[in-house]
Amino acid sequence: FQQLLRAQLWPATSTQPSTAATFSLLHHFDILTSETSVSISGFHCALEQLTDNRLLSDIPLLRIVRQRQWVILCKRFGRRHIEAGLENIQPGELAVECIFCPQPSKNMPDGWEENAYMCAYNYVAECCIQL
């Protein structure tokens, strides 16, 4: 598995991979999906036509793309090196906390409950957020 990744190949399965996609192919797919409205099936059909019209229907391109996007998502949100592993990520753990949103234990003054109306007015006026 690590040898394939070092060779710039993304394996289709994690156990006994026999099919892989190059990193450049996945990069092209990322660019096309972000700049145009191409779907995975449209990209797959175009890929078939570019490669001598051979049938590539048994290549699990969608699985490869989803696995890669999941790993990149975990990497970008700092969850790659957690001890519990990527399988144990709870819902909401990949979300980044907004530093401007009022959070009572972090960025709100003590005793804000007593004057909650004025506190809410100040936060809306300063940050233009919804409470």
Average pLDDT number = 76
Residues in helices, as a percent range: 40-55%
The helix tally amounts to 5
Beta content = under 5%
Compute the number of strand runs.
Answer: 2
User: H/E element string?
Assistant: HEEHHHH
- Overall SS class: mainly alpha
Return the domain count. Answer: 2
Uncertain runs are: none
Q: Overall 3D geometry?
A: elongated
Which radius of gyration do the C-alpha atoms yield?
Answer: 23 Å
Order of strands, widest sheet = 1-2
Straight-line N-to-C gap? 47 Å
Main pleated-sheet profile: 2 strands, antiparallel
Explain how this protein is built.
Residues 2-53 form the CxC2-like cysteine cluster KDZ transposase-associated domain. This is CxC2-like cysteine cluster KDZ transposase-associated domain-containing protein. This protein has 131 residues and is mostly helical. Helices cover 44% and strands 5% of the residues. It folds into two domains: 2-88, no CATH class; 97-131, no CATH class. The chain contains five helices and two strands, in the order αββαααα. Strands 1-2 form a two-stranded antiparallel sheet. Strand 1 (9-11) and strand 2 (20-22) form a beta hairpin.
